[in-house]
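Supplementary Note 3. Input sequence used for the single-chain structure prediction.
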Amino acid sequence: MDYHRQNNVRVKIIRIFNTYGPRMLPNDGRVVSNFILQALHNEDITIYGDGKQTRSFQYIDDLVEGMIRMMNTEDEFTGPVNLGNPNEFPVLELAERIIRMTSSSSKLYLSSCRMMIRNNVSRISHWQKKNSAGSLLLNWKTG
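The predicted structure, written as discrete structure tokens, is reproduced below.
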């Protein structure tokens, strides 16, 4: 916002949540690409924690549409707007689904290692539910 005020330029603030789609980098560190890569190589799929933690996932086309709608809002509206799927599901279920879809022989490995960033991501995903007004303003939702 300081940049907006200092330079009198149009600014839009968007919080982007877990996004997947074509051309994802295999080693980008995201949960979807990590699980797919591990499954395709029939490696154990690592889940940090007990797998009950939830995430929301959106397809890249939905994200791009939301971003375009945000860019087309009135200049006075800067956001922030959360762009992500309001429906969350457990990480364990995601891993099981990827194993089935890839016909992988991967096994699930639940890691007791809890990195600080993993814990922060769990809290961040719940910001999404607090900002449904932005999605209503944009008349946007994931497919």
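The CA atoms of residues 26 and 140 lie 29 Å apart. The mean pLDDT is 82.
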